Amino acid sequence: MTATPNGGRVQQRRSAWRRLPARLQAALAVLPVATLLACSGSATRSDTGTGSAAGRAAGAAAALPVFHRDDMLWLERVTFGLDSVSVAEYRRLGRERYLDRQLASQDIAPPPIAAAIDSLEVTHADAQQLLIEVNTQNKAINAMPDGADKDQARKALNDRGNKLAYEAARRELLRAVYSPSQLKEQMVWFWLNHFSVHQNKANLHWLVADYAERAIRPHALGRFRDLVLATLEHPAMLQYLDNSQNAVGHVNENYARELMELHTLGVDGGYTQQDVQQLARVLTGVGINIGNAPKLKPEWQALYRRSGAFEFNPARHDFGAKVLLGHAIDGRGFAEVEDAVTLIVKQPACARFVSRQLASYFVADNPPPQLVERMTQTFLRTDGDIAAVLRTLFLAREFNASLGGKFKDPMRFVVSAVRFSYDGRPITNTRPLLNWLNGLGEAPFAHPTPDGYPLTELAWASSGQMSRRFEIARQIGSGNAGLFDPEDGGAAVASGFPQLSNRLYFEGVEPFLAARTRTALDRANSQQEWNTFLLSSPDFSYE
Amino acid sequence: MKRRHLLKVGGAALLSAGVRGRLFAAPTAGPRFLLVFLRGGYDSTNLLVPYSSGFYYEARPNIAIARPDPASSTSALALNADWALAPAVRDTIGAMYLQRQVAFIPFAGTEDLSRSHFETQDSIELGQTVNGARNFRSGFLGRLSDTLLGSSSSMLPIAFTDALPLAFEGGSTVPNLSLKNVGKPPFDERQAHILSDMYAGHHLETAVKDGLELRQEVATKMADEMTAANRGAINTKGFELEAERMGRLMRDKYRIGFIDIGGWDTHVGEGAAQGTLANNLANLGRGLQVFSQTLGAEWNNTVVVVLSEFGRTFRENGNRGTDHGHGTVYWVLGGAINGGAIAGEQQAVNRSTLLQDRDFPVLNDYRGVLGGLYRTLWGLSADQCAMIFPQASPLDLRLV
Predict the structure, then answer these.
(1) Residue contact A461–B324, C-beta within 8 A
(2) Binning pLDDT at 50, 70 and 90, where does residue B225 land?
(3) Confidence class of residue A5 from pLDDT cuts 50, 70 and 90?
(4) B396: distance to nearest CA of chain A, Å?
(5) Is residue B77 helix, strand or coil?
(6) Domain ranges of chain B
(7) DSSP H or E segment with residue B158
(8) Secondary structure of chain A: what % helix, strand, coil (to 5)?
(9) Helices (H), strands (E): how many in chain B?
(10) Average confidence (pLDDT) over B151-180
C-alpha cells in the first residue's frame, strides 16, 4: 500500500471543498466523527476473531504484500464486495489460502447479526407446522360467510405469509452483507436462483425460508446430487413446479421438464419429450402430506416415505417400467427417483451445464469454453463436488484475465454498496435493501418463472436499470436510507450519511479508479454527492 | 387501415451520436405498434373458444366455457359459427370486436417445438430461424426499429419494462422504463451531466444517458396525472394505470412499444368462465381498452398485437389446469384495422387435427404474421422484411 499518492488525493479533494460555501464547510467538518464511527464499528467485531485482524491491518500493513488491482477485483468477485474484514483476511492469508478457507467455511455471523437472525420467527419455525397452520386457517376462512370478517381474516393470513417470506429475505440479505463466509453466501444466492421458486405461488410465502435453510444452504458447497435431491424433496419445489399434483393417471410434467431443462442438463442436454414424459412417470407419487399417513396395501407399506411434509406415496406412483435417457428403470418406488437423479447428474451434459452456469455467474457472460471444459472435468472426476469445481474456476488463468469485466447484477450491486458504505456496522432494517432489489428487478424469491434471474449484463444494464441504479446510489450515499430505522416501524433513527472516503476506500479502491471517475468525484459539491458518484461509477458496477 | 405513410426507408442504419436529440425529437405522423407479450403461455383455447367442437367439451370436462347463450353471463360470446369469446373480456375486447377493432388469429405460433417457456420466448423475441445460426443479441423489434429509424428519427422505440427485453436487443439502444411506478427524477441537470460523463466512451454510455433523460421526461409528463384523475378521468389502477401511461407516451412520442405481462402458466386450477385465467384476461382486456381510449384519434393509427410463447394442451390435465402446448391465438387490435374477423389459415378442431394428439398445430407462423403487418404498415421492401425476419415470407392477412 502506497501512502503518499493517497494522501495527495485527500489533499486535492479537500482543497476543492475549501471553495465551498461556509455552511457546507461547517457540515463537512463533522466528517472525522463519521470516520471514527465507522472505525469503532469495525472494532466491535474484534470478538469474532477476524475483526481483530482488521483492527491490526493498519499497523501491520508494512509487512503485508502490496494489494494490487487484481487482488481487489479478485476479492470483489469472490465476495459480495469489499469490506475491511475481507481485505485484511485476504492480505494476511494470500489468495489460495483465502480461497480454501472460503470453500470450507461454515455459517457464521457477527454477534449482532446472529442475534437479529435468531430473533426471527422463521429461524425457529417448522415448515410442516406452518403448512398445517395455513391450511387449517384457509379452511376456516373458506367456511366463513362472505363479508368484512372473512375479508379481515383473509388479510390477516396473507399478512402473516408476507411476514414469513420477508423474514426469509431478511435473513439471506443480512448474511450476504455480514457473513465472513462470503463465497458460501454467494453460492446460496446462486443456487436459490438456479433452483428458483417464486413466493407468490400456492403457499410458498410460508415455505421459502425453510427452502433456503434446509434444501439449499447445507449443500451450497457440497455435492450437486445432494442439492438436487434436497430441492426435489422440499415442499416449496413440489408446490412450485406442481409435482405435488403428479400422480399415476394424473401426470403433470412440469417439474420433470424443468428438472432436466433448468436444473441439470440444460435445454440442449440431449433429452427428448419422451424423456420428459418418462421422468414425469418416475416422479409420480412424490408430493406433500401434512396429515396422517395414508392407509396402504401391505406390499406398498415398506415403500412409503415421509419426512416432514415431504411424502412419497406408492398409491400415487406409476409402477410401470420406464426408459430414461436410454436406461431402463424398473418400477420400484422412490428408489426410481434416486436412480433417475443419479443417472441425470452423471451425464457429462449435466456437468457441463452446471459448470457453464457457474462460470457465467462468476467469470463472464460468455465464459471461455476451455475453462468450462476444465470445470466440467473436475465435476465429473469428483462426482459433482461443488467446492472442487469452484476451486478450478477461481484459480484459473481465465478467471484472472476476466477481472474487471463482470457487471454486478442488482444483488451484487446493492449488497456490495451496503458492505462498502457501512463496513461491518450492523444495519437494523433490511426493507430498504429489499425495495432496491425489487426496483432493480432481482428480489429474493420473486422471479416469476422457474428459470431464475439472468446471469448476464444484458439483463441488468438497460437504460432504465442504470438510472434506477444511480437513484439507489444516491439513496445510499446521501442519507441513512432507512437502514437504521427499527424494523417494527418505531421512530426513525437519524444517523446521517455514510463516509465512503474511508480507509477501505483509500486502501482498496482509490488507487485503481478510472480517470473519468476521479474527475466526477472532484466535481462533487458535498460528501453525499461524492458518495453518490462513487457508487454510480463504472468502477463500482464492474468487478 | 390504409397505408398512409409510404416511407422511403434506407436500411438498418445505426444510430449516430445524436442520441440526446433523438429522445426529445417531436413526433410526426406515422403508424404506431405495440407488442404485448403474455409470458407463461396463456390458455388461448379458453379465450377463443372452439364452441362448435364437441371434442372441446369432452376434453375439458371441468374447465370448458359454456356454449353461447344470451341468457347466461358466464357463457361465451359467439363471434362466428365456430368461435366464441371468453365472457371475461365480453365488455372490453368483445365490444371492440363488434366495432371491428379486434381480430384473432388462431393456429398461430412458432416452429419451436421445445414447449419450454424460456426457449420459446427467446426464439420468438429473436425472430430468427430456429435451426439456422442465430445471433442471440439481435431481437426482431430491435431490427424493426433500426430499419425505421434509418428512415425517420421520429420512429422512436420504447420498452415499458424494468429490463430491456430480448426482442429489442440490436444495433441501437432502446430506452426502457416500467410505468408501474413513476416519481420525481432524483438528479438535477448538473448531477445528470456528471453521471453521464463518467460513462463517456464506455459501452454503457448511451444507456446511461437515455436512462437519465427518460426518467426526467416521464416524470414531467405524468405530473398532471392526479389532476386528470380528479377531473373525472377513469380511475385506473394496476395494469389499467400502466396502460393509460403507455397510451400517453405512445400518443405523444413513441412509435414502437413493448410490454410483457406474466401469470399465464395455469398448470393447476385455471378456472373457466371465472377464476385465475378469467381474472387475468379481464385485467388485460380493461387495460387494452384504456390504452385505446387514451390514444384518442391516434388509435386509428395504431396496431397492437398480443401474443404468447405457446398455447396449452387441448385437454385439461389432472389438476383442472393445462400444460405446455404449441399453437395459440394472437390478437390484433387497432382503431382502423379490418377487425371483427378470425383471420389466417384454420382447420376444424377435433382430435384428429391436434398436433401429437396434444395441442394445436401452428398454421400461421408468427414471423409471417408480424412481417406481413409491418410490410403494410410501413411499406417495407422485401429486403427490409428479410432483415427483420430472415427467411420468412410475410403473410398478407388483410387486417391492415
Answers:
(1) no
(2) low
(3) very low
(4) 34
(5) strand
(6) 35-174+234-388
(7) strand B157-159
(8) 65, 5, 35
(9) 12, 11
(10) 82
Contact A253, A264 (CB under 8 A): no
d(CA A137, CA B249): 45
Which residues from chain A sit within 8 angstroms of residue B174, using beta carbons?
A: 463
Minimal Cβ distance to B204: which of A245, A466, A523: A466
* CATH number of the structural domain B35-174+234-388: 3.40.720
Amino acid found at B235 = N
Among candidate residues B341, B339, B223, B230, the one with its CA nearest the CA of residue B292 = B339
Please state the φ and ψ torsions of residue A159, each to the nearest 5 degrees.
-60, -40
Q: Long-range contacts for A199-203 (Cβ within 8 Å, ≥24 apart)?
A: A199/A165, A199/A168, A199/A445, A199/A446, A200/A446, A200/A448, A201/A239, A201/A240, A202/A239, A202/A240, A203/A131, A203/A134, A203/A135, A203/A161, A203/A239
Q: CA torsion B293→B299→B302→B303, rounded to 10°?
A: 60
Distance from CA of A49 to the nearest CA of B (A): 39
Residue type (1 letter), A359: A
Is A449 within 8 Å of chain B by CB? yes
- Domain definitions of chain A by residue range: 3-104+407-541, 119-222, 348-402
Neighbours of A298 (CB within 10 A): 6
Amino acid at B198: M
Minimum Cα–Cα distance from B119: chain A residue: A267
CA A469 to CA A537: how far, in whole Å? 10
Rounded CA-CA distance A368/A370 in Å is 6
What nine digits make up the cell of B218? Answer: 416521464
Q: What 3 state SS string does A15-47 have?
A: HHHCCCCHHHHHHHCCHHHHHHHHHHHHHHHHH
Asked if residue B117 lies in contact with residue B111, where contact means CB atoms within 8 angstroms, the answer is: no
Q: Across the interface, which of A440, A449, A462 has its CB nearest the CB of B176?
A: A462
CA pair distance B38, A43, nearest whole angstrom: 53
- Of A364, A385, A430, A395, the residue nearest A176 (C-alpha): A430
Nearest by Cα to A290 from A158, A168, A136, A122: A136
Kindly state the cell numbers that stand for A38: 465507522
State the Cα–Cα distance between residues B127 and B123, nearest whole angstrom. 6
Q: What is the pLDDT of residues A40-49, one digit of tens each?
A: 333 333 333 3
pLDDT band for position B118 (cuts 50, 70, 90): confident
CA distances from A440 to A170, A434, A469, B97, B191 (A): 17, 10, 7, 38, 21
Tell me how far apart the alpha carbons of residues A430 and B321 are, in angstroms, rounded to a whole number: 38
Q: For residues A163 and A169, what is the distance between their CA atoms, to the nearest angstrom?
A: 10
Which of helix, strand or coil describes residue A281? helix
Unique residue bearing C-alpha cell 388461448: B44
Contact A287, A238 (CB under 8 A): yes
Total Cβ atoms within 10 A of residue B363: 15
The secondary element (H helix, E strand) that includes residue A6 is helix A3-17
- Which three cell numbers, joined as nine digits, stand for B365? 407462423
pLDDT at A2: 30
φ, ψ for residue B304 (rounded to 5)? -115, 135
Residues contacting residue A40 through CB under 8 Å, at least 6 positions apart: none
Question: pLDDT tens digits for A295-353?
Answer: 999 999 999 999 999 999 999 999 999 999 999 999 999 999 999 999 999 999 999 99
* Cα of A272 to nearest chain B Cα, Å: 9
Residues of A in contact with B191 (CB under 8 A): 529, 532
The beta-carbon neighbor of A536 closest among B178, B198, B262 is B198
Query: CA-nearest residue of chain A to B268?
Result: A242
